[in-house]
Amino acid sequence: MRRGLKITLVAVTGAALTLSASACGGKKADSDDGGGGDKKSLKIGLAFDIGGRGDQSFNDSAAAGLDRAKKNLNVQTEEISAKPDEPDADKESRLRLMANKGYNPVIGVGFAYTTAIIKVAKDFPNTKFLVVDADQCKVEGANVSGACFSEEQGSYLVGAAAALKSKSGTIGFIGGVNVPLIQKFFAGYQAGAKAAKPGIKVLPPKYLTQPPNFNGFKDTGLGNEAAKGQLDQDADVIYHAAGGAGIGVIKTVGQAGKWAIGVDSDQYNQPAVAGVKQQILTSMVKHVDLAVYDFVESVANNTFKAGTKQYDLKNDGVGYAPSGGNVDDIKARLEELKAKIVSGEIQVPTKV
Questions:
Q1: pLDDT by 10-residue block (mean), the chain, 352 residues
Q2: Residue 18 has what pLDDT?
Q3: What is the model's pTM?
Q4: Integer distance in angstroms from the first to the last C-alpha of the chain?
Q5: Which has fewest Cβ within 10 Å: 10, 58, 256, 288?
Q6: Euclidean distance between CA atoms 240 and 245, whole angstroms
Q7: Phi, psi (degrees; rounded to nearest 5) at 310
């Protein structure tokens, strides 16, 4: 069992919230006095995106960073998930609740938290805030940090992999919600595919929902149906950027004996897709865990800096997963393309 205290916050209805706490066996968490001269214990509040911990994709990558902080640093945590189609007021309410309870720093996972965090941070100038996937990579405030990712760079590499491994000559892309962030994934994917194999056919992107409906990041049924549609159009490699809904994509594509490409986490090792893991070609890994841990560590060490930080191929903020060995035969080509992106020889587009 993990040493220390685990505190979980659960949304009930609207902005109503209930708190439950349970202690694991072993020694109690260090007190704020930090016995023996330790630093004062940080109390981290983290608000997940839709799907929460357990989505086996974007949120779980954030959770891994939080878990690493609990393991390596003197911290306590509180976490909560978003609800589909909730108003910004609900996001503000949970952020304010955590800040009022003394949680510092406070983290919002997902671009949808950007506006709420900037607003709440003004009322809590002594609390440090992080928004993961800051909308348009912009934040405001002396106590606000934003983590941004070059998703298009990692997507370029998995697009190249898709084109090189396709036998039908047709590949597909399924995005969770039609927003600029997810459009970046497709732009990089298409560019990488066409660079690796100019004659490849890239189907028009399929977005599961349109904003303000964000259920496309959660509903596996929508992912399943979209995957069937692209398989029917002869796609034999399909890349998803759909969070939890992507589990439906992977299962459907895998069961059809075609290649699926995961996103955010290395999905080859996720329990939900264990039955079709051999059909996962690769995953575009987005190290949200690194961004969360870097931020917490900066607060703990008093090295926090406001503004945005970019995570890209150069600093291993994004990349592709080799798990399963399915890209071993084309890895040299992928590494060649990666080196050209890092050097600046290849400029990856963020828009189609």
A1: 36 34 33 42 92 88 95 90 77 93 96 95 98 96 98 98 98 97 97 98 98 93 98 98 96 98 94 96 97 97 97 97 98 98 98 94
A2: 34
A3: 0.84
A4: 48
A5: 10
A6: 9
A7: -95, 130
- Is residue 276 within 8 A of residue 255, CB to CB? The reply is yes
Smallest CA-to-CA distance from 262 within 54, 179, 272 is with 272
Residue 183 lies in a domain: yes
Q: Is residue 350 part of a domain?
A: no
The residue with tokens 């929460």 is 52
Rounded CA-CA distance 246/227 in Å is 9
Grouping H, G, I as helix, E, B as strand and the rest as coil, residue 247 is helix
Indicate whether 196 belongs to any domain: yes
Q: What is the pLDDT of residue 40?
A: 64
Give the CA distances from residue 154 to residues 9, 124, 279, in Å, rounded to whole numbers and listed in that order.
33, 36, 19
What was the pLDDT predicted at 198? 97
Task: Count how many domains the chain has.
Answer: 2
Range of the domain at 249: 152-286+322-343
Instruction: Cite the DSSP H helix spans in the chain.
Output: 58-72, 88-100, 114-123, 151-165, 180-196, 220-231, 246-255, 288-300, 331-343
How much is the pLDDT for 86? 74
CB atoms within 10 A of CB 266: 19
Residue 303, pLDDT score: 97
Buried b (16+ CB within 10 A) or exposed e, 32-70: eeeeeeeeebbbbbbbbbbbbbebbbbbbbbbbbbbbbb
In this structure, what token pair is assigned to residue 236? 């034999």
Note whether 294 and 273 are same-domain residues: no
Cβ-Cβ contacts under 8 Å for 331 (sequence gap 6 or more): 322
Give the type of residue at 191: A
Within this chain, do residues 158 and 220 fall inside the same structural domain, yes or no?
yes
Return the pLDDT at 169.
Answer: 98
Residues 182, 330: one domain? yes
